[in-house]
Design brief:
Distance between the termini: 26 Å
Number of domains: 2
CATH architecture of the largest domain: 2-Layer Sandwich
Strand content: 25-35%
């Protein structure tokens, strides 16, 4: 578990990484004062939200991350913050003039674990909305939804599973297919305070 201070450090680093890249096209190096806890290898996502009234929070403006722990967390945050701002294929790149109207959210992920079931209908019993994030994988198709998504959309377990299938570019009922793999993970979530 990371501390609130760790979360604050990561949020400030993510914002600074985006601003520096937009101004100078330069990728920051991890700060020398990076806490040891943030040098561990972990999966992470950075979500950008435009401030506004959309289901109680801002409207999505970008979200990219690593679902697997493939690099030190501090490095992952720098990279995915920039990618969320400039490379999310669903949105045009963020402009520097927009950045003050965008709030950041960081999700630090536990290692995904495959859900083992004898019958696909058992998946619904294994998923905990509000706690679990999901990954659906079949062949080359893979989709991920963070734990906060079904809460924001008021989905039940089945809606969450179906929407993760859609995110993977698969039919909504692909979770009944024996070839489909379902993984769950948890996330520690940090939000920027409203001073931005």
């Amino acid at each position: 578990m990371l501390s609130e201070e760790d979360g604050k450090f990561l949020l400030e680093l993510a914002r600074e990484s985006i601003v520096t890249y937009l101004k100078e096209k330069k990728i920051l190096s991890p700060p020398l004062e990076t806490p040891e806890s943030l040098k561990e290898t972990m999966g992470a996502f950075v979500t950008l939200n435009k401030r506004g009234k959309f289901r109680g929070k801002g409207e999505l403006r970008g979200c990219i991350g690593y679902c697997e722990p493939i690099k030190p967390l501090v490095n992952a945050i720098i990279e995915v913050a920039i990618s969320a701002a400039t490379s999310d294929p669903r949105f045009p790149p963020v402009k520097l003039s927009e950045i003050d109207k965008i709030s950041l959210e960081i999700s630090v992920l536990s290692k995904p674990e495959i859900l083992e079931v004898k019958n696909p209908s058992e998946y619904l019993e294994k998923i905990k909305v509000g706690l679990d994030g999901l990954i659906v994988e079949n062949g080359f198709n893979k989709g991920l939804l963070l734990p906060q998504v079904p809460v924001e959309w008021e989905w039940d377990e089945e809606e969450f599973l179906c929407n993760t299938c859609m995110k993977a570019g698969l039919p909504t009922d692909c979770w009944y297919d024996r070839e489909t793999k379902i993984y769950s993970f948890q996330a520690q979530i940090f939000h920027e305070k409203s001073e931005y």
